[in-house]
Design brief:
With about 200 residues, the chain is of the alpha+beta class. The protein has 6 helices and 5 strands. Strand 4 and strand 5 form a beta hairpin. About 40% of the residues are buried.
């Protein structure tokens, strides 16, 4: 069964018209500070942005000197509908490399859409690097949060932290998800997350 959205592959042979439509959507986004859908309460949107910024900073502080993280200084975070994967909020954190802006913006949304389509908990369950389908989305009631801009496990640990800080899941739940994804970063960030929970 085909996915209900188009994904740009390296050699997909996408027609000029189709690519122009996607590119125009990105340009429209860049002309505005963020994309918002009224499906989420303003207080929830604010929490996602606040905690997203905090988790990105913590991740960069801990892992920024690792080889896989070098020159990665920002990302896009997407909050999407639990059932449809439709983006409710897309925002930029930090300063992603200019040549990667479109890619990160697109993948942050693709991960959520794909995870909703398959009814998975994480986008790692349907990951396929050859198809440019990466990990970095986590789907828990009633929200999907995804990130693109860091190594896939780094993207995932950021959204796990956001879910915990929002109270969507417990630290134990997040640890279990991280274990299933073989995520090496969560155990390092647990103390940071606990500290942020204490305020």
């Amino acid at each position: 069964m085909p996915l209900p959205f188009r994904v740009i592959h390296k050699d997909a042979g996408i027609g000029d018209h189709e690519l122009k439509v996607v590119a125009q959507e990105f340009l429209n986004y860049m002309a505005a500070p963020r994309i918002i859908c009224e499906a989420l309460m303003p207080s929830v949107l604010h929490q996602i942005e606040e905690y997203g910024n905090l988790m990105v900073k913590a991740a960069i502080d801990h892992f920024g000197n690792e080889e896989a993280w070098k020159n990665r200084t920002g990302c896009f975070i997407c909050a999407a509908d639990y059932d449809s994967g439709f983006p409710n909020l897309v925002f930029r954190v930090g300063s992603p490399a200019p040549e990667k802006l479109f890619e990160y913006w697109l993948f942050s949304q693709e991960k959520g859409l794909r995870t909703a389509f398959h009814k998975h908990v994480t986008s790692f369950e349907s990951a396929d690097n050859d198809r440019m389908h990466y990990g970095g989305a986590v789907r828990v009631p009633d929200l999907i949060i995804s990130c693109s801009g860091f190594p896939a496990h780094g993207d995932e640990v950021i959204v796990l932290g956001v879910h915990v800080l929002m109270g969507s899941i417990s630290i134990a739940d997040a640890e279990a998800i991280a274990k299933r994804s073989n995520n090496p970063y969560f155990v390092v960030l647990v103390k940071d997350i606990e500290g942020l929970m204490r305020g």
